[in-house]
Amino acid sequence: MAVIEVEPLLTRLTGDEKHAPSAYSTLDVLWVLYDRVLRVDPDRPDDPDRDRFLLSKGHGPAAYYAVLAARGFFPPDWLDDLAGADSPLGHHPDRLRVPGVEISSGSLGHGLGLGVGTALGLRAQGRLAPRVYVLLGDAELDEGSNHEAIAYAGATGLDTVTALVIDNQSASHGWPGGIASRFTVHGWTAVTVDGRDHDAIAAGLAQAREGAPHVVVARVEQKGI
Amino acid sequence: MREAFVDTMSRLIEEDPRTALVLADISAAAFEPVALKHPDRVRNVGIREQLMIGVAGGLALTGLRPVAHSYATFLIDRAYEQIKLDLAHQGVGAVLVSVGASYDGSTAGYTHMSPMDVQLIDTLPGWTVHVPGHSGEVAPLLAAAMPHDDPVYLRLSTQVNDIAYADAHLLRPVRHGSRALVVAVGPMLAPVLEATRGLDVTVAYTHTPRPFDTTGLRALAGSGNVALVEPYLAGTSAHVVSEALSDRAHRLLSLGVGRVDLHAYGTPADHARRHGLDPTGLRAALTTWL
What we know:
Chain B: InterPro entries: PDH/Transketolase, THDP-binding, Transketo_C/PFOR_II, Transketolase-like_Pyr-bd. Chain B: It comes from Catellatospora bangladeshensis. Chain B: This is Transketolase. The complex is a heterodimer. Chain A contains 8 helices and 5 strands; from the N terminus they run H-H-H-E-H-H-E-H-E-H-E-H-E. By secondary structure, chain A is α/β, with parallel strands linked by helices. Chain A has one domain: Thiamin diphosphate (ThDP)-binding fold, Pyr/PP domains (Rossmann fold, 3-Layer(aba) Sandwich), CATH 3.40.50. Chain A has a 5-stranded parallel β-sheet with strand order 1-2-3-5-4, sandwiched between helices. In chain A, strand 4, helix 8 and strand 5 form a beta-alpha-beta unit. The two termini of chain B are 34 Å apart. Chains A and B meet through helix 5 and helix 6 of A and helix 3 and helix 5 of B.
């Protein structure tokens, strides 16, 4: 799969997409995850030992849908009726309707808690290989629920969790001191990368270490510019 | 009831590797022995109730059967959106077990009261709600909730009846009469029995208001007069009764906790009196209505 395969699919989707900037902001990170990192198989979407990818920032899932279609989780024809009355693809994804979608999201601040629980559940069942990746937005970090999860995952050294924060500088009051520091103060390892540089994203993800959860802050162009 | 929950829950964790418990500090000390033995399946996330439900949802997504526990006001009121979205909307369930029902925490004031918890849960589809009236009902209700994956709310109280009825999933008549059916939910049975002494009414008890036994209701409500006495917000089950009896003339009296922030302390008995849920208040309301 090459990213050039995804872009035409993404274009098909944009007709009624209300969150196009947020959709495009995630494209390269999603691409790297599904092309190089995630151990997922569209033929075995319920494999208990698969990696989990949780799109917490459910807004703007166009890029997510395009990547899933490109990877074969559902037919590309589905992309032509985004949010239609009979379409399984809405402006916020539904795990009960879209193969490969791990959580239904849209309301912000839910994915990281679900991700922590997923990681704990896998560990409790002796499944130590799967990693849990949770993608958030910088504005989404305003939701206090995220900080409950950040603090607990850090305190317990939940090292199978990796958060990815797409930073398009859309948080109303910004993050003085930087986003990464919000995680590192609770014991996470953190790296900030260019969110359009595929090699940098992959290298950032690879820096996860035993004993601590990891966050990759992926900076992209500012929303609206 | 809380002790029965701790004992039963600890046993279930020992017996079933699918069982997990998530706490937010409340009752953590009571569960410490089993937490030390099964640290992967007994998790205290600290005073983080939103996370507690999110974690429960994540555990369920991996196939475990999570139980989350705290005071009702923190477990239900504070974490309502997580209950809505992190459980059933994901296609998974959990067992939520609360303490501090309605005005059990009367000396703590309104910050520690949740008379609206059942009504909040009732806004969501598919939930079973158990409101035991005796500690002896807790263990069988909790054990029965564990083998499946559906959402269950188990509401524990310090207010109790004299007798446990394990078989009260449906409306269980405990007194027979002809002028009206009085439905007593959970710990309302004891004051209702005292309040209706000498009255020509049927009293039926249930510890499971959801799903409500509408078949039993129709069979017992031949007089057309139905009084609901619930230990949470008055009228919580009124819509169920109205729908079940929509094809026949009927009168409905809904008694329960009033929609008022009393800004008052005192004992649970004081609050029951203020809400008209003590035997004297109940008898006055019922006889006036009859």
